[in-house]
Specification:
The structure holds 3 protein chains of 3 kinds. By secondary structure, chain A is an all-alpha fold. Chain A has a single domain, classed as Orthogonal Bundle (ABC transporter involved in vitamin B12 uptake, BtuC). Chain A contains 17 helices and 3 strands. Among the domains of chain B are: about 80 residues, no CATH class; about 80 residues, no CATH class. Chain B has 14 helices and 10 strands. A 6-stranded mixed β-sheet of chain B has the order 6-7-8-3-9-10, with helices on both faces. By secondary structure, chain C is mainly α. Chain C has a single domain, classed as Orthogonal Bundle (ABC transporter involved in vitamin B12 uptake, BtuC), CATH 1.10.3470. Chain C is about 75% helix and about 0% strand. In chain C, strands 1-2 form a two-stranded antiparallel ribbon. The chains are: A mainly alpha, B alpha/beta, C mainly alpha. Strand 3 of chain A pairs antiparallel with strand 3 of chain C, so a sheet runs across the interface.
Amino acid sequence: MKSILKQILQFWAVYYLILLGAVPYFFPADSRLEIATKFNSLMIYSLLALALHVIVGYTGILHLGIAGYFGIGAYMTGILCTPIFPFEFCFLYLIVIAIVTAAIAAVVFTAPMLRLRGDYLALVTLGFGQIIIFVIQNMESITAGTQSLSPVDPALVPKWSYPLFKSLGFSETWLNYDWKIFPNFYLLTLLMLMLVYWLLHNLEQSALGRALVALREDELAASCMGLSPVKLKLIALALAGAISGLAGCLYVTSISSTAGPKDYGFNRSILMLCCLILGGLGNRRGLLVGAFILVGYDTILADILNTQIQQTTWSTKVKNLLQPSNWKFALFGGVLILIMRYRPEGLFPAQRKSRAVKTPLESASQSTVSPQGSVSIAPSNSPLDSNSAKQEN
Amino acid sequence: MNPAILQIKQLTMRFGGLVAVNDVSFQVAEGEIYAVIGPNGAGKTTIFNAISAVYQPSQGEILFQGKTQYSPFRFRQFLFWLLIGLFTGLFAMLIGVNVNQLWQKSIRDNNITDTFSYAAAWQSAKEYIEARLSTAQIALVSGFVIGVAASFSVWNRSRRTTDSIGRMGIARTFQNIRLFQNMTVLENILIGLNHECKCSFWSSIFRLPSSNRLEEEAHQRALKLLHYVGLADKENLLARNLPYGDQRRLEIARALACKPALLLLDEPAAGMNPTEKNELMRFIRQVRDELKITILLIEHDMKLVMGISDRIVVLDYGKKIAEGTPKEIRVHPEVIKAYLGE
Amino acid sequence: MPLLASAELDQLIQYIIIGLSNGSLYALIALGYTMVYGIIELINFAHGDLFMLGSFLALTMLSWFGLDKGGSSASTFYISFSIAILLLAVPIFCAFVNAGVDYLIYKPLRQAPKLAPLVSAIGVSFIFMNIGLFWYGPVDVAFPSLVTREKVFPSSSIQFSYQALMVIAVTVPIMIALTVFVKYTNIGKAMRATAQNPTAAALMGIDVNRVISITFLLGGALAGVASVIYGLFNNTVSYQMGFQNGLYAFTAAVVGGIGNIPGAVLGGLLIGLVRSLGSGYIDEKWTEAMIFLILILILIFRPTGLLGARVREKV
């Protein structure tokens, strides 16, 4: 009985994702749209957290500039569809372009730095993220500087395919604008999140995923087995770039504006890192929870409480002190410190499953390799991080 | 004697002022069991690290199957550098002429009326760049040169890496066992098989039938290999939970999974009891005889070394002091001096 | 014939003076990064924000002295007296905060994987930033200009102000003192020994934990001095300046070779010069990006920095 329950609960991440789709319907119709917008951004940030998970969880690189790739995807989308410029591409193209550019950027800008030691690499990724912010800020003709490009309202499919879609019964206004209204875009985002989640699930169980785990466990031993660390890391980076590009594209389309460059800065990257660390590094399901808690606090709960507090008659000082959004830095910082200190494996320690072995030698139906403790941030036995690695001459 | 599979020619390894290996040469013939011995700190592991490209030789060269271990220059490589150069050149040019202004002139200023055409935008972009032709040219050329030089130097630095050596057919084990501790025994072997598993990225993330089939085949081969080394019923244990002797075995099995032509064993018998040592001796011979793999090993246990080696080289303070069959080594005055002192 | 027209030359010298003054402040902060990294290989991410807290404390103390609106009515003696108090109190505050953070947060993580303390340091940095946010709010705050901007040599055309003089008069002796301290005192020797090999140092009877605490104290004190002088020299502070200046200083430490004390000073001066010359001759808004670019290039081509020794990884 207990094991059945356990088996059912094993897929809680899937239930959670399905539940997310239904969340807006739990609320009365008049507030449904607002709730949907908030949960939409929760899903987009979950996507971004998945992207960071691909880098930090799979390769062990502490990346502090993931929001930069997010920004590239977002601005690529914004530039190519805002009416200020003549391009005005459709969503179908934009999503592909955003994914490809962000993936290329991730590879091109990080590839030369892969030889660096862990902590230096972290700082370089941070610097890279900052450079993207400055570029966005300073390229005023292209990105509108500190303002934002808006509106971002792409049509769903290219103009030339309209006759086809019309013959299938879609109206032109639907294809132009209405495809974005409430349940559609919300469900599209959810679909994308599920898709990425599923693809990563497959990846983790494939030979490639195994190679990445081996690389994180012991880079030298893995490379002596003929695995190319550079190639594997670049694959992970490209994948992470692609997912962040996708998230960026969905983000600007959902809020219909590119927001300002500050939205793609260090704070966002750290928020994503917090989600990962809270959920447990290297744990795909855990990060969904981490994102739910932290992004949920940041975009949903804090907003609601802020408005509540603003409506009170307390003095401004008290209001400022009580506003949860003013506490978010301390919250993120506190999460990082406490988790590192007391539960470095996160709320949900990683469980890695290996595929069942069906063998003629033994008919073992093999199962979870559980719980294998923490996937530490950096493999402590790797040549780059061992404490004995410090030998100067 | 068979042709040499590995030739070490006047290898010298320097670390700062320390000369760890000094002008050492020897040859390992195909099908041999060849041992490197010497007191602690004689430079044995350094030679292994040099062979498997963890370190680059300071002087001298290492030939594997008659060839250097450097990956050869290919024309495709050259085209790739040019491409990178072109990319950085264009990038530098855009920065040089101020891409912001360029965009303003070509896209924004042409988009005031409804009659935007890409031809007009291209025209104004060309005019804009022509007005700053010298800057653009300088930026383009210098960006090109930097891009080509950088990609060349990256390639040059990575011509001899541990992974390329591994793929070339040299596998190794480590003095302090370096298994993937948190993976199962089977997965450890699968990593060794990984580089010949031809499943593509796309087929594995979309879980196409082809990747499933390849994975199944790899599993079968891994199980066979485990059976061969005598770890048959332990495939689902975590590597770190294995007893010490089995960990050594697994490390060898993982190296064998790479299908090497030459296997480097770094102190395979360290920490084993006499029974295990005898078993290991038999096993190493079996690997050589049945799988036709040449074996180069470092070992401190004289009984084992003398028992299985065809030839032995002796190092002391980074210098080669003797080479020969076990019989010759046993009576070599220099060797006795190195081990027992004056 | 002169190489440059004299006005241009004056301009150049002006930029160099500003660059060197700011650069020596970066050098002071960079010293804190470099010493901590040298000893426990931790990039103390919170160091920049500690610097920010220091300047906030200085500002608050100035308001206690009644000087926060500027010192036009106060006597020179009163002003120099209060600056002297600031230069005493703020470094002590920063030193103890820094060492306290080490004791509470980094010390339990000494045996953890190396990135764990780095992540914690990022966390501390965020908490400091939040404290700063509550302290003076989200906007830039004016720091009173207590030292005059008048020229030291009124007859010369070069703008060598009393402010720049103050920066140099404070930072140069401190750097010299630090070098002497690390080189000749027992504690300094213990620090160098610990940096070389903590285990061996512990075996030789050095109390490694005490050495680490002293390092944090020293680094914090230097950041404290830098924060007071920075406020007096640049006259604006904000809760985000810690992140920015911290990154500049970290870049300086890396440029000079992290773990290397003269390297940090050299790196700091270089970064200061790049910043002032960059904003003078290229474009102000690109200087920050330029500094990050320098960080990235240095790390790619010479990860050990200009003066750093090569570190060999042991297999």
